[in-house]
Write a structure and sequence with these properties.
about 130 residues; mainly beta; 7 strands; about 55% strand
């Protein structure tokens, strides 16, 4: 059976990127927390926010760039694939579904008071994008 594994998510970082060196090879990994907000009506007809929290890993050069340019609250667009992490701690097996980022677009932060984007001419170019060559 054929398979396809790609996700595209847009949201805001829930914390500063945690950039670390891994293993003996010395690759960098940035662990990101992403909040994706969905607004919809609840049972009473009131508009409510229903956030979804997703863990994202960025590797190598992309990890470095995330550590340099992103912080808690930064809006981003992530393209990647789902990945299952498995580990054992104190004899108990654990699993966690996360996203392995293939590209991340650093989006401008909106200025809540004016609806404009901070530091960006809205008629200007698209946001920056960094791709990982895999």
């Amino acid at each position: 059976m054929a398979s396809f594994n790609k996700v595209i998510l847009m949201g805001n970082l829930t914390r500063d990127p945690d950039v670390r060196m891994t293993g003996t090879v010395g690759l960098k990994v940035a662990r990101l927390g992403l909040a994706i907000n969905e607004r919809r009506r609840d049972r009473n007809g009131q508009m409510q926010d229903f956030p979804v929290f997703v863990d994202v890993d960025a590797w190598d050069k992309l990890a470095e760039l995330c550590g340099q340019h992103l912080s808690k609250g930064s809006p981003v667009l992530v393209e990647g694939r789902l990945q299952m992490d498995n580990w054992e701690k104190d004899g108990v097996k654990h699993q966690k579904l996360k996203v392995r980022a293939m590209s991340i677009k650093f989006l401008p932060k909106p200025d809540r008071s004016s609806g404009q984007f901070k530091g960006v001419d809205q008629s200007a170019s698209a946001p920056e994008e960094y791709d990982v060559p895999f």
